[in-house]
Amino acid sequence: MWWLACGAMAAVGSYVLAAGRDDGAGGTREVVARLKGIPALRRAREREAGACAVAACERQMPEMLDILALGLSAGLSFDASLELYCSGSDDELAQRLLATMRGWQMGLEGRREALEGLAARVSAPSLVRFCASVSEALSFGAPLAQTLERQADAIREEQRVSVEQRIEEVPVRMLVPLGTLVVPAMLLAILGPLLCAALGG
Fold first, then answer.
1. Burial class of residue 74 (count of CB atoms within 10 Å of its CB; 0-12, 13-18, 19+)
2. Among 131, 137, 122, which Cα is nearest to 65's?
3. What are residue 67's phi and psi, to 5 degrees?
4. Which of 56, 133, 155, 196 is the most exposed place for a label (fewest CB within 10 A)?
């Protein structure tokens, strides 16, 4: 089905270029605006944005957990430790955590409900585990610093294993372009002169 997608993209590109030639920059902008309004493209953009947010949060989780564990070990409260992380970072995870914390500080919802809502919106596995651990620890008064440290170590190990798996998959993925592009070109370069000489002789 990839060739259908390529054909559709080529047709859309040709249409956009034609509109740009006919109506100038305004026509191109109008076509692009209409394309953005297509439900399928809009859903695809939303899925891509969601996947990027999940990946960003997963990458930033170990650092956040380390800072929270450090703050809790130093005697800070959970809110103060979270404020410490959010004030020193401007990444995706910090912004989402800051907005969530402002919600329960203003009394819009409880801490547990706010964390559960954040976990449901982002759906990053490590963030879901973090929110569940925090809600449980704060509800029952259990120590949280060591739990967060263990979670940070576990996430780093998962990320290391994931990187190793992607590295191992690289040679397999290279077989397709190697077999379809490089090998035929090499055969043509080697056998081409021989065939020409044989036919000419």
1. exposed
2. 131
3. -65, -40
4. 196
Integer Cα distance of 142 and 134 in angstroms: 9
Number of Cβ within 10 Å of residue 199's Cβ equals 7
- Rounded Cα distance, 110 and 113, in Å: 5
The DSSP code for 106 is T
The CA-based diameter of the chain, rounded to the nearest angstrom, is 91
- Whether 119 contacts 132, CB under 8 Å: yes
Q: Give me 68's structure tokens.
A: 């929270």
Tell me the backbone φ, ψ of residue 91, rounded to 5 degrees.
Answer: -95, 180
pTM of the model: 0.64
Residue (of 140, 163, 159, 141) closest to 151 by Cα position: 159
**Residues 6 or more apart from 64 whose CB is under 8 A from it?**
85, 89, 93, 94, 97
Token pair for 192: 């081409």
Average pLDDT in the chain: 79
Show Cβ contacts of residue 23 under 8 Å, excluding neighbours closer than 6 positions.
30
**Torsional class of 124: left (φ above 0), alpha (ψ -120 to 50), beta (otherwise):** beta
